# Entry
Amino acid sequence: MIRLILFLIFASLIALNAADVRKPNIVLIFIDDMGYGDIGPFGSTKNRTPSLDRMAKEGMKLTSFYAAPVCSVSRAQVLTGCYGQRVSIPGVFPPASHAGINSEEHTVAELMKTQGYATMCIGKWHVGDQPEFFPTRHGFDHYFGLPYSNDMMRKPPGGDKPVVPLIRDEKVIEMLTGPEQDRLTERYTDEAVRFITENKTRPFFLYMPHTAVHVPVHPGEKFRNKSKNGIFGDWVEEVDWSVGRVLDTLRDFKLAENTLVVFTSDNGPWLTQGKNAGEAGPLRGGKGSTWEGGVREPTLAWWPGKIAGGSACDAVAGTIDFLPTFVKLAGGTVPADRKIDGADIAPLLFGTTKESPHEARYYYQGYKLQAVRSGPWKLAIAPQNENMGGGQAVFASMEKPRLYNLDVEIGERTDVAVDHPEVVTKLKALAVKMAAELGDGKPGPEVRPAGFVKNAVMLSPDTPAVEKPAVTP
# Structure
């Protein structure tokens, strides 16, 4: 009897210890085309975002957090921990593209799986729409969403309406018309709640790249005509509702204290879309540009008991840092067989440092290096457009660069290059060093190839299953 009691006590202690060291869950909520000034925590007075306001009150604002100018490259950075240029994804993939994410790259999902995590991607993928490039081929147990942007609609053979494919795992389950996109945010959120519910007793990684708020704008019926900012505001407020429901689910299952949730966007607002676009707040430029408004994102990090509530961090960080940060939090290590650009930013999140792990931040448009930032200083070394697809470019070159102090003037209006020649010299040297790696106008020697398939097809419910992995050209 005494032995049984001792055994039970010992077993209980082991169970308690196991519970104490359970790996943290990680949820990444990735919005499409949301501007720096589109949510309450970053100054919006047009859009009501109570869930995000609460998330900021209970967590941290990251005010110098960077993505990329456009969709595919931004998602490649999340998945690989590299500048998109390093993995040959410098821009945007169209439907039926022959290229996509290379199967030889280590994705954050693959590395989380090696640590025993359940993994799921819900939403817009956009790093290759052929079966060989699907999320389920790159570390995700399950997938539900659109393979590319919701405006990339095409008429199927014999069809009379443009549609976009909705995929579950590796099967096209529906071809959505425009009006049928109205329920996307609701359906994504239902899937997220289901995934959390089904995996509440094991560690999980949920990557949730929303279709919202990319044009065409499709708020759900419950949110349409409810905001004070038109149809765009309606969709922002539905996104806020979705975030609130995910956080509430974590609270309900008592998972909040063991879950890191990050909210951010893939690029800045698509300003040329007028009322259907967001705002960059105090930043200059928007989607497609390497001005701050094109790449600096409204970012929140939430982990009750780990991340100080109401805190803020202005150290330079970005989407390239997700992979090394998440993998280390999961107890893993990043393979050393290939170079990545990201760094572990957990010390920033936990408040143990205010110093960025990066010597510099590089601003690429395609393979063209247009600017570099180090500390508060940003040096433009090439002409920059303020919007995607046009407008008069503001001139700069290596011989006649522009320099901005972002701590003094976040809006990039006053060129102070003449006053700080030593800073200009330092940032030029950093730019030359990176250009020697990744290129400047064309791929450099340390660029790795994208994945490639010979026979790309438009997706439909009849798309055949493909078993062989993607090959490199």
User: Anything to note?
Assistant: Confidence is low (pLDDT under 50) at residues 3-20. The first helix runs from residue 2 to 20. The longest strand covers residues 25-31.
